[in-house]
Write the structure tokens for this entry.
Amino acid sequence: MTSGASVPEILVDQTLADLADAGFTDVEEIRTAEEDLQFSLPKELRKDAAGNVDRTSLGGRTRS
């Protein structure tokens, strides 16, 4: 089984648990790269703590 940065770790863990239940218990983790990608919501969906739409773009600039 392989996975990448866009796969939530909980799905990998649940899949490994299901495979273990089916008798596949020999697991070896091999990391080929250290990934730290984060995926942001589109700016139209971002809100601050008060629930106001975040009008800043990526990079922190305010758009008119």
User: Anything to note?
Assistant: The chain has one domain: 1-64. The two ends are 47 Å apart (CA to CA).
